[in-house]
Amino acid sequence: MAIIGAGPAGIYAADALMKSSLPEGVSIDLYERMPAPFGLIRYGVAPDHPRIKGIITALHKVLDKDQVRLLGNIDYGTDITLDDLRQFYDAVIFSTGANADRALDIPGIELDGSFGAADFVSWYDGHPDVPRTWPLDAEKVAVLGVGNVALDVARVLAKTGDELLATEIPPNVYEGLKGNKALEVHVFGRRGPAQAKFTPLELRELDHSPTIEVIVNPEDIDYDEGSEAARRNSKQVDMVANTLEQWAIRDHGDRPHKLFLHFFESPCEVLGDNGTVVGLRTERTQLDGTGNVQGTGEYRDWPVQAVYRAVGYRSEDIADIPFDDRTGTIPNEAGRVLIDPKARESARYLAGVYVTGWIKRGPVGLIGHTKGDANETVACLLADRDRLTPAPRPDPDAVIEFLTGAGIPFTTWEGWYRLDAHERALGTPQGRERVKVVERADMLHASMSQ
User: Fold this and answer.
1) Which residues pair with 178 in a beta bridge?
2) Is the pLDDT score of 139 beyond 70?
């Protein structure tokens, strides 16, 4: 079996396969575009969230299994194709996730100083395929969105570089954040406190920094019947609302960086001058009784010099696989890749090809939710196994010969242990757990050195 994408979704799929009724001798190859595994955990989680990064410990146990083999630094569609994979594997599961920013169609969003949150996250997480510097000259910054990614972006922008130095951030990120000029960070949500998508713990973490003053306008604390119902039906929603209420009524302190959480402000235009961001225009909204909102026709201009949109991630098209541009997912039924929903079953699906994780259901939910995706997909694969076409070259060494013959420098699970040890050694002199290696060539060198 081949799994494309060695993030949580792919690793959970491997775990589900190993716990299934497949014969003991079945092997699983996990392909990863990056030289290192773990996907979103390594390149999508803020560096000051070690609790979430602790999930890696559980993922490690899966990759330590003899049945699983990691093949990293291999780009599907470039280094290896679906036709190639069919030569070596009976079935292929795609778990490529979502790493692009969802578009926000408002005037001015293309101006200099307007950024996607995913790009900023990739920069501060040391992704090797993004620029090494980031423009941090704005003193007032807007973040659009009220989910956990928006909180991560706002928190990193509001913290000092020295506060984050204890984490695994690489030197180029520390130098960039040390020069960050942001004094005010404004987070904007179109709806109210009961509709925010924060999780309670991530929200409360905003208030832990000694340099960040979190400010909520009392006028933004409002609920309608739909909002009250949401609070009654969800402990998490109620906890978020309670935290915001407490912040709204407290006195402001003197911490140097101000982080404002605004509700009922719908971004409608990024304002520019000579092609550069100079402000954000929002329309005030009000609840309509159902928890949704409608515009009031009242507009306000906010003088900011940078805008970050954190309105969701989007998956990217995959070579030789059907893709729905509207939903940003691979069309599927319970994980079977769908070709024609109206065709009879034998012609309805792309034979031997499956999907799991965000590329399957869209970028919603927490990391742990991908376990359910994996179990559903693997159940379908098992149901189909008698109909799968056996691979012509199933020997595990055959794909290694193919990659070696093509001159593709690939990394392995043993290589990850070497890279991991190297990053930890870089951190030791500074009293840090690790310092993340950014350059792909350096990652490969550390992974392949004996």
Assistant:
1) none
2) yes
